[in-house]
Amino acid sequence: MTASAPALLDVRNLSVAVDTDEGVASILDGVNFQLAPGSIHGVVGESGCGKSTLIKAILGLLPARSRATEGSVALNGKPLFGLEQASTAHSVRGRQIGFIPQDPFLALNPVFRVGDQLLEAMWWHGAGSDDTNREKPRAQRRRAYSERIVELLRAVQLPDPELALARYPHQFSGGQRQRLLIAAALACAPQVVLADEPTTALDVTTQLQILKLLRQLTRERGVSMMFVTHDFGVVAQLCDTVTVMYAGQTVETGPVATVMEQPSHPYTRMLLACHPERSVELKGIPGAVPSPLRPPAGCRFNPRCPEVIPDCESGRPKLLPASAGRHVACFRCHAEAVP
Amino acid sequence: MKSGPILSLENVVSVYGGGRSWLGRAQPEVRAVDGVTFDVQEGEALALVGESGCGKTTLAKTVLGLLRERSGNIRLDGKLVSGLTPQQARLARMTIQYVHQDPGAALDPWWTIGHTLDETLRIHAVSDRAERARRIEEMLSAVGLDSSFLRRYPHELSGGQQRRIGLARILILHPRIVILDEPTSGLDLSVQATVLGLFDELRHQFGLTYIFVSHDLSVVRRMCDRVAIMYLGRVVELGPTEPIFRAPVHSYTRALLSASPSLTPGQLDGMPSLRDDPPSPSAVPSGCGFRTRCALADRVCSAHRPALEAVVDDAANGHMAACHHWQDGLFSSADGSLAMHGVGAQ
Q1: In terms of Cα–Cα distance, which of A331, A333, A332 is closest to A315?
Q2: pLDDT (tens digit, 9 = 90+) per residue, A19-28?
Q3: Which residues of chain A does B196 touch, with a Cβ-Cβ cutoff of 8 Å?
Q4: Which ipTM did the prediction report?
Q5: Residues 270-299 (A) with a CB less than 8 A from some CB of B
Q6: Under CATH, to which class is B7-253 assigned?
């Protein structure tokens, strides 16, 4: 949303629906966000708000019965949907977009050596756009890529990188596995890395090590990152900008400091007030997150919102510019901004 | 503080493994809880804090009587309840109850909530059916649910409702001490706030004593009167919540507290991080267990295991720490620079 730099990853009005036995479930409803080059953008929300679906939609990994019903995703101005020819999509996803999964215990195959698993990504995608090894004979290529893996493992501060290649996943701790997965995501020298709650399964001291590492690597390598999490504390420390989601809709997006310190959407305000660090009387938001099968009309937060106005049920609120560089999707905030 | 402590632990040790396998090989021994001593006062909430593998859940289960302590004394209301067989231990500790980490998994999926709650009372010999129904009804309303939930099955409940049932199911037995094992893990922020509010309310309503096992420091700070920080089966720092959060003394406590991300943005670079991973509980370093990751460690630390001793400035509060160099630690934190190896500095 920054006007100065064009967005590297541009998600516009993205809606995703899933066909279920009970009808069509609307998982994402008009999601908007822009990732500026070299920045870390957090996507935060409660479970079921569509954070993980958003990542899958960008990666083209939506499950069989779900589809993007409207909207677009563009990388460097080139649309990712529409180019559904497998070859084009393949040249972008995995190669220009890396992915760090949530659970370091499930993401590595237990029966293959770590070195081979890391090699596989480069075998398919090459090691970046200036990779000269792709044309070389098999043995040379393998040697070159193995050297690159060792260099990457050193960059993610894994102890004994040369020996690590021949080990199996169970020989590493949770934090070390997460480092391996970060190395795998960076192997093909992507422009963008999508991270799906990569520190949720880790202890706080390990989480801190990984957060520092991610920040250092994205800065050194000029990689942009979209970081999905439910933890506002992690967003506050790691991210430059943040998007808050509720029940598949974008409610607020902007610089981290602004959104965290002066949230303007009622949902962001109420959710932050539930955090034990800020909570005055330990009360949750009344009501429950609506089912995606039967979402409320208009703004999906309206049944729980204490500040509803008649407009709220009329249609999906647009994400419009508000104070201090942020964008808010709330009819009431819009009405107050333009008296 | 007028009467004695409701629960008192003295040098409690719990061990996994050991003995021989059926082939005659010696099995390695893991001292999951290695000499823990503390008292719990009636009506307080004590937090057991530490990272995975530090022995906090093992300690909770030992207190409950599900695991048999290898050595040490556990006193409940001044009466010795340790050294018993598991069945006797559980009978002697009937006033201690346990809320599981994942109450959804702890409920039988084939039974209605009513049936589950009823069974609890039948096991505990409440034979009058009307009496059981009355107590169930009363407890459901205490945890904020109505009687329509009696006919529902566990999968029909949300995470927050499952926690309420998990709580109702043990409160129905009128416990005095409740062990809450990671009571809010996996809950969303708004549900967590509601559940925490309920814990607070019930504690005052029923005069409960909580042992709060958690790794979420912001929750602990909010909910608990005292904190015990555990590392590799030992308590490294113990004391009232506010002094510990404001001026932690042990290097591990300081690293743990500063690693918890706060809501105030832009502090990542100033947060000191620990090097390496914690050692395996089956190969605990000699002397102080934390010395391999501590910047203050020297020869004394590897030779002698530090005892949990009163922190002189804060002794009246019951603030204690197990560190040979806690005074050095205070000096380095006073000038604002933590003497700790950051990952970036390696």
Answers
A1: A331
A2: 989 899 999 9
A3: 276, 282
A4: 0.85
A5: 270-272, 274-279, 281-285, 288
A6: alpha beta
